[in-house]
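Worked Example 4.2. Consider the chain below.
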Amino acid sequence: MKIALLKSRNVRREITIFDYKPEYRDFLYCPFPECGCKLVYVNSSSTHPYFKTHKNENHSSSCPYLFERYNQQSLANICSVKGCTQTADYKVYLYDYYAPPLNKEFMEQDFTCPYLCQAHMYENEENAIGEKKPQGKVKYLYSNKKQAQGFTKYIPINKKSIFIDSASNQHNDPINLEIINVNSQLIKYLARFPELLREIDPRRFEEIVAEIFHKKGFSVSLTPRTRDGGKDIYALQNGIFGRQLFVIECKRYSTTNKVGVELVRGIYGVKMAERATAAMLVTTSYFSKDAIDFASPLEYELSLKDFDDLKSWLKEYK
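Applying the procedure from the previous section yields the following structure tokens:
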């Protein structure tokens, strides 16, 4: 688990693994009110940091963290709002972003309200109070009942998802952005709601960028999921000046997580090593000043494309 309750004589608040300090060691507990078992912080070179139960302690039988470990489907049937019997349409997550030097994104299922139907999801958002900003707080009707730092995000469950407009989908069938083929219908929808690019699987984002370049006349290929080269797409163009190869890296980041100069240097290094014509880094966010400064004198070799460029590409796609 990635959340713990910090509880001492003078302090009582929820913290994430990124907030942990050594002096908190003896004051960590399960945040679920009916549990409260003691926790310890674990950090090793072989795993990501996490909280686990203290030696000789266990979660209570009703604790959702126990359900998550032993029966991930136990809470997945109905909306978590008291009295609602509707099938859940969304998993509910607590999300936050930690600015540099950490430069980390935090996201874990919200066990104070793990699932919502579509009606209660809309109601939860419409009545939210607060600003969605790094390390801020937002108050909701149903989610984040402990008012932890961060804000709520929703991930569609299985086939219950986002709907294509009636003009292109006469039967109003549910379309899941994670399983639909990348085609003109999907890109047309994303042109209307480009912020959804930040919610899809990173691999799907790469496929969308590849399709856009394919439509522009390039021969494209995606690199394997498991690779160590810093590029996601090869785009080859045959023109009057011969064959031109572009190496493209895609970063599906939140709007608050800017792409830094290290990644820009990395894709430029790939371009040099593979003797490509030019390199490009495409992101759903924006670029840091250092990244822009690095790329500026390399305008014929290195291109940075941010969320605004993506929106233009989606609108131009035909």
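Residues 202-215 form the longest helix (14 residues). The helical segments are 64-70, 118-126, 184-192, 202-215, 261-273, 289-295, 307-316. Compare this with Example 4.1 before moving on.
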